[in-house]
Structure formats: C-alpha cells, structure tokens
Design goal:
This protein is α+β, with helices and mostly antiparallel strands. The protein has 2 helices and 5 strands.
Length: 73
Amino acid sequence: MKTLGNMPVGSSGVIARLHGEGALRRHLMDLGLIKGTPFEVVRVAPLGDPVEIAVRGYQLSIRREEAAIVEVS
C-alpha cells in the first residue's frame, strides 16, 4: 500500500482512501483530503515531520502519522 507519508518530495498523486477512524479521519476530510483529490508533495521537514502538500489550491502541512493513513495512487 502506497501512502502519502512515504512519498518523495516533488511527487504527485491522487488520494485513493483514508484508513483512519473517528475524529482523525473526519479532520483530514475537513482539510480537503477526500477520495479522488489530486495533490503534490511540496517539501518534508528535515527530521521528516511534518509533510507539506499542495492540495485544492493551498499548502497543507500534516504530521507524518496523519499522512501514513492516507492511501494514494
């Protein structure tokens, strides 16, 4: 399974599925991470957390553990 958390800088893809449950899943969906949404990995902090992505016309930074539950294609 390919996740947002292990994609290299400069790569792009489409969100395929969110694996989380409850409040975390709802939070990511509220931020615009829903199935079929294209994105691009803009940068990753030096220690690997957070990950910045370009999605829906804005830059979004999320923690590595949050990015790990987002399956991409």
